[in-house]
Amino acid sequence: MSETNLTPARIERPTGLAMTMHNWKTALKTQTPYLMTFGIALWLGAYYLFVEGWELPRFNKLPGPVEVITEWLNPDPDWGMSLFTPEYYDHVVVSCRRILISFGIATGVGVPLGLFMGWSKIFRDYTFPILETLRPIPILAWVPLAILMFSGFETPVIFLATLASLFVTTLNTLLGVDSIDDDYFRAAKSLGSKKHHIFFHIVVPGALPFIFTGLQISVGVAWFSLVAAEMVSGEFGLGYLIVDSYMNITYVTMVIGMLTLGFTGWASSVIVRMVGNRMMQWRLRALALEGR
Amino acid sequence: MQTETNTSIENAEKATIEMKSVSRGYGEKWDREEVITNFDLTVNPGELTVLVGPSGCGKTTLVNLIAGFDFPESGEILINGKPITGPGHDRMVVFQETALMPWLTSYQNVVFGPKLRGDLTGQDLKKKATDLLTKVGLSEFMDKYPLQLSGGMQRRCELARAMINDPLLMIMDEPFRGLDAMSRELMQEFFVRLFEDGGRTNLFVTSEIEEAIFLADRLVVLSNRPTSVRKIIDIKLPRPRNFHQLTSSEAFDYKREAMELLHEEALKGFGAAAGESQKAFMESLTKTPS
């Protein structure tokens, strides 16, 4: 066929470090990193001018960027919390561990639940009303129940974070199964697939793009319900740190807690995205062809 | 017919499809739509039967019935004398838009069926799949995903995925729709070679008359809804086919006959859809001497 003549000599796909280096080099040639840096600088500049430079009303009570960053990097912090104090890491580690557990449970339960709901009409008829009734209840409304049901600090907090992201994951997975084109099911049936083949070879891979979109949202949801839960109950964690510093009028520490939360949350969704891209090479290559 | 010139495939199993007064409609009692009524057709073994009909006439419903995705409300469909009870790999469907799994490479797509069923394993499977992919010109694209292939390549990959199952019947539901004119012509030529080489029973659905005449042993012109057979035209152009035959007076006569029938049927559908105000315009159209 004529199309075969168009392929140039084959060049091996680089692996490991070589690939990473290549990706970095390519990224530095685009405008993205520079625009991002500029965006951050712009935001920081405005923050500085409003709070510390011009001391505008309403802003002058807030801790400014210079103050926050100095404190954050201070080996001997004025308010007791910086990159050099072990307590800082205690809070980060505790929150991350809780996210890992609750996001893990939510994914482990939510993805199979959504897949089954999408795959089996009967199972969906049983479960869908419950899901739709529980889903709109805000996580703060669950706090009293969680405290009644579970003892200690740890379990209620994890329960609340799990619950919120479970709903997101389940619903997105379910929609993912619904989104699969009927022709794939028909093709698979013609080719002699049994029911379980269809589940593993059509339903699961077909729903993956939606599942990972759902997981990126659900890891974010897990973070903000975790922080809400930590604010109500708990003795460690970034949510607790923020509320505790507010109570103790150490606003600088409060902002450090907030920024730390932002960065950790960002990192967690980057990880989810990377895992998704790894599992969906077919999609990645197709998008690359379109120049994205 | 074409089997006389090609002895290698005389042993190949081929299906006869008999449709006996098949009817299928959809919708509740109060807004029922009869799609197919009393449809009778026999698809002869080893022949390429082309169904051509006005758009929306229920061609896809026919395909679904024969493929076993859907069932007739009355009448019966027999494959080699046995009723069809569901989808099976004795009847392979090539869909309108590609139905290759986008998450599998072309090679993985081709081996999908035999691998799951366990019909072929190891080296046998690998050899057969590689041979077929080479035959359809995709040997260099075995590790590519469908979305990385051009439209024409996707259709050829889909042909390979169907053929690896050695089906008794190939059902092609407007398989070249959506391809540009050039690729479409190349695919038609490629497909006709493939058929002449294999002699499988083929049911090909299209709305393009030239395509139909170029490919067909028998051309079945369908009526407007509810669908029945309007006329069967035997296309006696010699095989192997080539595009020059389409300019012969013989082909022109077939084309003229089929077009007149189709035009009539299409007008019926158009007239039914148009409001009263369009009646006069429609009549002026039908009165135009052909």
Explain what this protein looks like in three dimensions.
- The complex is a heterodimer of chains A (292) and B (290).
- Chain A is mainly α and 292 residues long.
- Chain A folds into two domains: 36 residues; 204 residues, MetI-like fold (Orthogonal Bundle).
- Chain A is built from twelve helices and no strands.
- In chain A, helix 4 crosses helix 10, helix 9 runs antiparallel to helix 11 and helix 10 packs antiparallel against helix 11.
- The mean pLDDT of chain A is 88.
- The N terminus of chain B is likely disordered.
- Chain B contains eight helices and ten strands.
- In chain B, the strands form two sheets. A six-stranded mixed β-sheet of chain B has the order 6-7-8-3-9-10, with helices on both faces.
- Chain B is globular, with a radius of gyration of 20 Å.
- With 290 residues, chain B is an alpha/beta fold.
- At the A-B interface, helix 8, helix 9 and helix 12 of A face strand 6, helix 2 and helix 4 of B.
Search tags:
heterodimer, A: mainly alpha, MetI-like fold, 2 domains, 76% helix, 0% strand, B: 290 residues, 6-stranded mixed β-sheet, 21% strand, globular, disordered N terminus
Per-chain topology:
The complex is a heterodimer of chains A (292) and B (290).
Chain A: H1 16-29, H2 32-53, H3 65-72, H4 86-119, H5 121-134, H6 139-149, H7 154-178, H8 182-190, H9 195-232, H10 238-247, H11 251-279, H12 281-289
Chain B: E1 17-26, E2 33-43, E3 48-52, H1 59-67, E4 74-79, E5 82-83, E6 91-94, H2 106-117, H3 122-135, H4 151-163, E7 169-173, H5 181-198, E8 201-206, H6 209-215, E9 218-222, E10 229-234, H7 249-273, H8 279-287
Parallel strand pairs in B: 3-8, 3-9, 6-7, 7-8
Antiparallel strand pairs in B: 1-2, 1-4, 4-5, 9-10
